[in-house]
Amino acid sequence: MILAACGGSGGGETQVVQGRGFTFEAPAEWKLVRTPRALGAQGDPVELVQVTRLPLARAYSPKLFERVIPELDAAAGAVAQEVGAKVQRRTVDVLGERVRQYDLTFDGKLEQLTFVLRDKSNFQLLCRREVDADDEPCTTLLNSFRLG
Prior knowledge:
The chain is an alpha+beta fold. It has a single domain (3-147), classed as Mog1/PsbP, alpha/beta/alpha sandwich (Protein Transport Mog1p, Chain A, 3-Layer(aba) Sandwich), CATH 3.40.1000. The protein has helices at residues 65-83, 136-144; strands at residues 3-7, 13-19, 22-27, 31-34, 38-42, 48-60, 86-94, 97-106, 109-130, 146-147. It has a six-stranded antiparallel sheet, covered by helices on one side. Strands 1-2-3-10 form a four-stranded antiparallel sheet. Strand 4 (31-34) and strand 5 (38-42) form a beta hairpin. 26% of the residues are buried. Residues 1-11 have low confidence and may be disordered.
């Protein structure tokens, strides 16, 4: 894992967080956190940006996007039900491809979960913050996420 300070958009400093096969940027002052499946950075007990890499049973290609939407929607719906969250679904672009993104709102928090499927990997990008907090860490996570 390599951490390096660099200038961020909006005048904020960021750190580059490097995991197995991916990198992203997080606020420089946030603490690096690692779990067996995820790597992220945490500001306070609520603020978190994190990437989890999980294996896929079969290789994914962008031509399968429409076919995987129901499965991804169901998975996000199950998580939302488990925590009592309201969920908003949308399609966004990450790395030049369409991906599914979900906003789960509960207990004054917003968890934004974005599924980036590539080959045999499911990269789950998570950004958690207070509902009324600045969304710059979430935007930075999506815009800075890179594979390789």
